[in-house]
Amino acid sequence: MISERVSGALVIRTALSAETEVIADLHVRARSTYYPDGVPQADFDWTESWRGSIERPDGHVLCAVEQGRIVAIASFRTPDGAPVDTVKLFQFHVDPGHWRAGIGTALHAACVEEWRADGKRTAVLDVHADNRRAQAFYARQGWVPDPENPPAEGDHHLFLRFSVAGE
Predict the structure, then answer these.
(1) Residue 131 confidence class, pLDDT cut points 50, 70, 90
(2) Contact 94, 127 (CB under 8 A)
(3) How confident is the model at residue 3 (pLDDT cuts 50, 70, 90)?
(4) What is the 3-state secondary structure (H, E, C) of 8-60?
(5) Antiparallel, parallel or unpaired: β 122-128 and 157-163
(6) What is the C-alpha separation between 167 and 165, in angstroms, rounded?
(7) Nearest CA among 39, 58, 46, 51 for reference residue 1
């Protein structure tokens, strides 16, 4: 497991339970940028949800830290019922004030590095259909539409797949 990866002034490391409030706040700020009518589940306890993700023994939460501040987060694990060589990227957020600075690319590279170390061959995710910025980011990283999960009519999410073994 990656405990710390330094890239210039950026440090990518495993998130700590004590950081859940900061992580939940970043998550809500990032999500609010692509929901035109406000963030669904605004009254949901995201702090406890993130604490559960961080403390989950089969889960991983990485954070990118710049100048002592968490500026990006990623949460992933093998989903229930999936093959052991599959990982799902459940959450991936960069603080909106840090977009287009290479932080997301560095965090994604750290995720892929960990997936390879853990023997994962395939990564999957779903992205909100209106989140064109995220879709473009994932495409640049090599994600493609998941042929096994085409979106259903009226679905608000697109399902993407990434070959972890590919360079």
Answers:
(1) confident
(2) no
(3) very low
(4) CCEEEEECCHHHHHHHHHHHHHHHCCCCCCCCCCCCCCHHHHHHHHHHCCCEE
(5) antiparallel
(6) 7
(7) 58
- Cα 157 from Cα 150, distance rounded (Å): 10
φ, ψ dihedrals at 140, nearest 5°: -65, -25
* Residue 27 contacts residue 73 (beta carbons within 8 Å): yes
Per residue in 73-130, pLDDT (tens digit) is 999 999 999 999 999 999 999 998 888 889 999 999 999 999 999 999 999 999 988 8
Q: Which residues contact 159 (CB under 8 A, 6 or more apart)?
A: 124, 125, 126, 145, 146, 149, 150, 151
Q: How far is CA 20 from CA 17, 25, 53, 156, in A?
A: 6, 8, 10, 27
Confidence (pLDDT) at 28: 85
Report the distance separating Cα 83 and Cα 95, nearest Å. Answer: 32
In 3-state terms, what secondary structure has residue 102? coil
